[in-house]
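Lecture notes, continued. The same structure-token format from the folding unit now serves as the input rather than the output. Read the line below as a description of shape only.
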């Protein structure tokens, strides 16, 4: 009995020592995570506001606005893996800091240009200018986002520590959604609306984007990372090696499908609150409730993932998110006054339901995104353990390219659905829409993303990864 007790004590001491050795200091986690605030702003704000800007300020048709977003992101299918492979080759000599610094500056400038340099005499010319500027901005964002994601897999060999890193990253991502979606729309109105409002919003949000990304670029410059041998050969040979990593390929397909649905609903947010709920002023309250719930629940999901495993926790969060998303189908403009909140004003029953949905979505949306990213680092670690080689940049590049392509296809789907249901483009502000056009917007925000989520979970059912 004493021998067994001593063996158990030795095992526990060994496990505790390994945990301390693999622990990532909170200061490093914070410096890493804050960059996601700016990255999330650039990912979400153009997806949400650029179609709205083009259709209501530049007179661009909805279907064409979707193509403007799609075309630059088709290039990213090639660009992201190339940047990943490039940063992998450079990391042994200069690290990934030059990519982060250059990408942060160019991305922020590109963001501002999208809403300030795209007005022309013709909607077609405006669309072409927007497409060109978005092409350059998206390329700059790849220079930051791909190496940034690659760093997460090299911070610790402990899978739970990597989940912890992703949770902090998700907290800043949630703040990015709050800034880029909730605050940005209100800034437009607060600064007078019209061209002046859009320009003011672009300058303020662009500055926030720049500062947060630079903090990470500078703060991670001297952080020690896991070292591995560089994979010999060019990008094509590296892709061939990754092809044998089945867990990564299944996860890649799952998140790609899932993100298409997410992007479709993101594109419809501005339209949904403007036409379906008729309460654009409610967006910041909705986003605030979502953000607070998402931040507070993250420690609980870390415990859940430890207890159930990442895969089961991921499915649980996905199904719950899907159920809430379906409920948006029954959202309507409020026709009563249920209560009055200080700083918000009178709220009807439908307004309260919107806020409650936001809180519930916050409880589940962030966790399944965090767990997907954490499982990505697991598949990279799987490659390192089984082959001794793991070029994080190429993995991150492929994952990032798929995500960006999905978020480009989302606006295309949204544009086609809206045009098919009779949405009418305008210049100088929002135009009245038919009940059919509003119904199409509601579908984009509810049943369509929920159906796509079901498809992604069917694919994910094939995911298998040895817990060791």
């Amino acid at each position: 009995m004493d021998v067994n007790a001593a063996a158990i004590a030795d095992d526990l001491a060994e496990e505790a020592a390994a945990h301390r050795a693999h622990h990532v200091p909170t200061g490093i986690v914070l410096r890493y995570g804050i960059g996601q605030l700016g990255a999330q702003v650039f990912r979400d704000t153009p997806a949400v506001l650029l179609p709205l800007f083009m259709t209501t300020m530049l007179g661009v048709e909805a279907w064409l606005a979707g193509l403007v977003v799609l075309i630059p992101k088709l290039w990213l299918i090639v660009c992201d893996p190339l940047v990943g492979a490039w940063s992998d080759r450079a990391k042994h000599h200069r690290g990934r800091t030059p990519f982060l610094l250059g990408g942060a500056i160019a991305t922020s400038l590109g963001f501002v240009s999208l809403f300030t340099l795209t007005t022309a005499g013709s909607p077609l010319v405006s669309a072409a200018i927007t497409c060109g500027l978005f092409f350059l901005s998206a390329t700059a964002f790849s220079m930051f986002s791909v190496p940034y994601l690659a760093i997460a897999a090299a911070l610790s060999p402990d899978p739970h520590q990597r989940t912890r890193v992703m949770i902090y990253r998700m907290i800043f991502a949630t703040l990015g959604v709050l800034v880029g979606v909730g605050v940005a729309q209100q800034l437009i109105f607060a600064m007078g609306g019209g061209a002046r409002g859009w320009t003011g919003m672009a300058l303020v949000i662009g500055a926030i984007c720049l500062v947060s990304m630079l903090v990470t670029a500078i703060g991670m410059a001297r952080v020690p990372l896991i070292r591995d041998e560089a994979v010999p050969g060019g990008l094509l040979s590296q892709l061939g090696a990754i092809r044998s990593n089945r867990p990564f390929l299944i996860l890649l397909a799952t998140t790609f499908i899932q993100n298409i649905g997410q992007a479709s609903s993101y594109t419809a947010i501005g339209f949904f609150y403007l036409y379906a709920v008729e309460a654009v002023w409610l967006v910041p309250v909705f986003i605030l409730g979502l953000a607070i719930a998402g931040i507070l629940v993250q420690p609980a999901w870390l415990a859940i993932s430890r207890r159930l495993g990442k895969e089961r926790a991921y499915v649980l969060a996905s199904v719950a998110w899907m159920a809430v998303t379906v409920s948006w189908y029954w959202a309507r403009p409020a026709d009563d006054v249920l209560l009055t909140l200080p700083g918000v004003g009178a709220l009807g029953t439908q307004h309260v339901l919107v806020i409650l949905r936001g809180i519930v979505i916050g409880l589940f949306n962030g966790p399944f995104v965090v767990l997907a990213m954490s499982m990505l680092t697991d598949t990279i670690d799987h490659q390192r353990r089984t082959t001794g080689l793991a070029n994080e940049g190429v993995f991150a590049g492929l994952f990032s390219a798929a995500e960006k392509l999905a978020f480009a296809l989302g606006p295309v789907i949204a544009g086609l659905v809206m045009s098919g249901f009779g949405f009418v483009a305008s210049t100088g502000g929002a135009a009245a829409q038919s009940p059919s056009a509003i119904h199409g917007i509601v579908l984009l925000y509810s049943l369509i993303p929920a159906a796509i989520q079901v498809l992604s979970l069917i694919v994910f059912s094939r995911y298998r990864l040895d817990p060791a």
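Point for the exam: Strands lie at 339-341, 345-347.
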